[in-house]
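step: validate -> pass
step: tokenize input -> pass
step: predict -> running
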Amino acid sequence: MKTVKLIIPMLVVVVLCQPAWASRIKDLADIEGVRNNQLVGYGLVVGLNGTGDSSSTEFTVQSLVNMMERLGMRIDRDNVKVDNVAAVMVTAKLPPFAKAGSSIDVLASSIGDADSLVGGTLLLTPLKGPDGQVYAVAQGPLAVGALSFGGKAAKVQKNHPTVGRIPGGALVEREVPFQLPQNRALNYRLRSADFTTVTRMAGVINQHFGQPLAKPLDSGSLQILVADQYANSLVEFIARIEHLEVQPDMAAKIIVNERSGTIVMGENVRLSTVAVSHGNLNLIISESAQVSQPGALARKGDTVEVPETDLAVSEDKGNLVVLPMGVSIGDVARALNAIGATPRDLIAIFQAIKAAGALHAELEVL
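step: predict -> pass
step: emit ->
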């Protein structure tokens, strides 16, 4: 019983000390060479209810005629109507280690003047890689999460009807040759290069295995030697590394979008002591017209319209708020909300604080 009482408190301490904001290594870095490959192809979508390309879209007409001739039919090009056919570009991502016969999702996007792809079926379309080789073949009914209908005077549209998706609509025909390194050294590439993060990753890996296996090469790459006990089970070794948790570091940055008024701030944003006062200047101009006409007993006179302009200028009260040095992101938000600043006001305030040299963060304006 004494042994049990000693073990339980130790386990509780380990769980509580685990950082709640830690991320897995598999979410922070990838093995060099293990990546997706882009595929693209040109195809035809048929079965549309009069919402396909018009006859003026020459490449759609030409593609349809060529396809019918390959199927053994003679077609007069001048008599072809393509209202129910649309030319599309088909794109897909070939995941790493994809085997022949496995299925992948594809996306079909109209390249003509089709109104909608709803109800269409993609015909057999080869998907090629940058090397010109066919790696997959796509075909099937499109799933379009949109609608579009109407007449000459009115039209109703929801979402985007000229793009459709086929889940599992392509079969892999050729595999991308790739083999995990056999020299017992794995190179990881960080998705966001950072010296602090890569150093923490190396420390967590070395501490877990009890030997110096990981070595940072630079801010974006990490080399890991395969432990002796995993020499014949490389996949198991990679799986154990992927589930190790690391607290990533991030640069102090503020992202602002002036078009939408969106502001995103990182937790490491800090300010030096600065006072902020912001008042909105409102200019109100109103136009009106006064009518001047002759008196009731006047012999002569004209009715004249006299324009009048009222101009009023008002300025909101600007409260002066002092932001002390080293405040956190929460303090910054509360202090700026205290003066009633709107998102667009905040953008102007952050730009002014940055110009004053009191903002210790990168300000990126989209």
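step: describe -> The longest strand covers residues 281-292.
step: cleanup -> pass
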